[in-house]
Amino acid sequence: MKYLLGAIALTVIVTAVALLSRPLLPIDETRYVSVAWEAYATGDLLVSHINGATYAHKPPLLFWWINAFWAIFGVSDWAARAVGPLAGLLCLPLVRWISRQLWPEDERTANFAPFILVSFSVWLLFAPLTMFDTLLTLTTMLAICGVLMARRGQWIAGWALAGVGMGLGILTKGPVIFVHTLPLALLGGWWAREAIAVRTSAATDSPRQATGSWRQWYAGVLVALVVAGAIGLGWAIPSAISGGQAYGDELLWGQTAGRVTKSFSHRHPFYWYLPILPLCLLPWLFLGTVWRGLRSIGRFDWGLKFLICWIIAPLVVLSLISGKQVHYLMPLFPACALVIAKLIASVRVEIPSRDAIALACGTSLVGLLPLLFNTLPKFHELGLAGIVPNIFVPVLVFSGVAIYLVCRKSAERMVTGLASISAFSVCTIIAAGSIDFWDGFRVDALATYVAESKSPIVWYGEYHGQLNFAGRVPNIDAAKTDKDLDRWLNEHDGGLVVTRMNADCEAAKRLLETEPTYENSQPTDLQRQLIDEVLSQRVEFSRMEQKPTAVSIYWIRQGLKKKPHVVLCVPPRNQDGSASAESRTAASEGTIVK
């Protein structure tokens, strides 16, 4: 149990560092918390909305959990951001429990698996985020626990738990839960064959009875699907009816079929995951003991067959789906942790020093990368400079030395030491970003400006709810196209326009190279001049009789690079259609005169 508590402690530390160091990250985290905020503000927990429009892209379980935390702890970003990490923490006792079911006599594997899971590189990065995949991993593991209970002979409780887990998975991220659970259950004829045969022979030698036992297994799978469908449709049907036909069609069909056949975004070739998955399992794949374990383990028992089905079948299906992202693999990581833990535990000899030396050298070399990023101009262009200041490089390099000092001889020392040092290294990188990097993702100042504006204001371009929760406003006018912008300006006869400046012309590229302003968000004379040049080349602004004036500028990261988000003042017109002298003066001050 002390190993489980140690893995939980690592999770708590990484989560605390992440919560204290960085803000909600646009566009995903800010969008999801804004959806939860709108449910809180309107009281509508059945139909999700974002910025006043129905939101059918994701089911509501994450939003419900955020609202539950707000009901207990009050509305705050840290309460919303605690949901994802809590789901990751709950995965740890489940991975230990699964290990005990697969190998009841193997205490070492059960001890190692939680430590290995929490120290996977991608798990350390994504588990603290407010996203759906960690919660989906938790629901997947609940369903898999039910399948294992059914194999043990607890048919009713097992398949009921499997159905509940899959149903909660539907409420988390839709039918993708079946990708991670249904193949495993259907392949029970391979990995669970011995258990069913033993149970059948103990009862009777009749071949008909043996066939009936498998019928019972697959009947249980069907029952679990019925339970899952009842849970999912218990929300989806009332939500589709309440949200209207367009929302219902998108919810029940568009999001599922569209993402499978022709993804709206994140499209990659079918082999995209093959090089990605090994990178996700670092640093453990560099440990020689893992590969020696393949020789020590001998014959594949039913537990390893079970884990192969858990990993390979979903990986094949996910590869066939057009949309691919690294974090879509999260539900596979507990199985990967169990495989690696079993391989390490199967090696009973002393861990050779060369394993620690190889890991120490690799970690120290990785720790030197920030020097490269902060020095070479090429990495400045990619936005990699300054994420980890040079002052933190000795700490990261020392992590490699610590691996050599701590992770030697016994497997227990290797697993706990390597997991702890990996978590420490990631915490160092996250904390280092708080000096400059994470502040670039803050939208609070712009959100406050929008919320407190006395003038009508519109966001021009793609808007993903970045400002709703930050500004505590349920609705912000948004114009996606130039026609939408024209319509809005005609309705309001002037106003404030928020737009992001992309590097789509020479003046915009020069604007991106200017020094960001922070103190009063007022553009410099050079920035005003460059913004005017950009606007003169954009059709929707160049055709205006009275050109808009830049009154504020906010530098917010889009990916790794900071992009200027400019607030433009479009003065109102007189009845004859021309702008008055008074309005031109007001435009320069960022106000609107009626």
Q: Which term fits the overall shape?
A: globular
Distance between the termini: 69 Å
Number of DSSP strands? 7
Uncertain regions: pLDDT < 50 for 5+ in a row?
Answer: 200-212, 575-594
Rg measurement, Å: 28 Å
Q: Please estimate the helix content.
A: 55-70%
Strand order of the largest sheet: 4-3-5-7-6
Query: How is the biggest beta sheet arranged?
Result: 5 strands, mixed
Architecture overview:
Helix 25 (468-471) links the parallel strand 3 (457-460) and strand 4 (477-479). The chain folds into 3 domains: 2-348, no CATH class; 364-439, no CATH class; 442-589, no CATH class. Helices cover 64% and strands 6% of the residues. The chain contains 30 helices and 7 strands. The longest helix has 37 residues, at 207-243. The chain is α/β, with parallel strands linked by helices and 594 residues long. It has a 5-stranded mixed sheet, with helices on both faces. Strands 1-2 form a two-stranded antiparallel sheet. It has helices spanning 2-21, 28-42, 61-73, 77-81, 83-102, 107-119, 121-126, 133-151, 155-173, 176-186, 188-191, 193-203, 207-243, 245-261, 273-280, 288-297, 302-320, 333-345, 353-367, 369-375, 377-382, 393-406, 411-433, 444-452, 468-471, 482-492, 506-512, 525-537, 539-542, 581-589, and strands at 49-50, 53-54, 457-460, 477-479, 495-500, 549-558, 561-570.
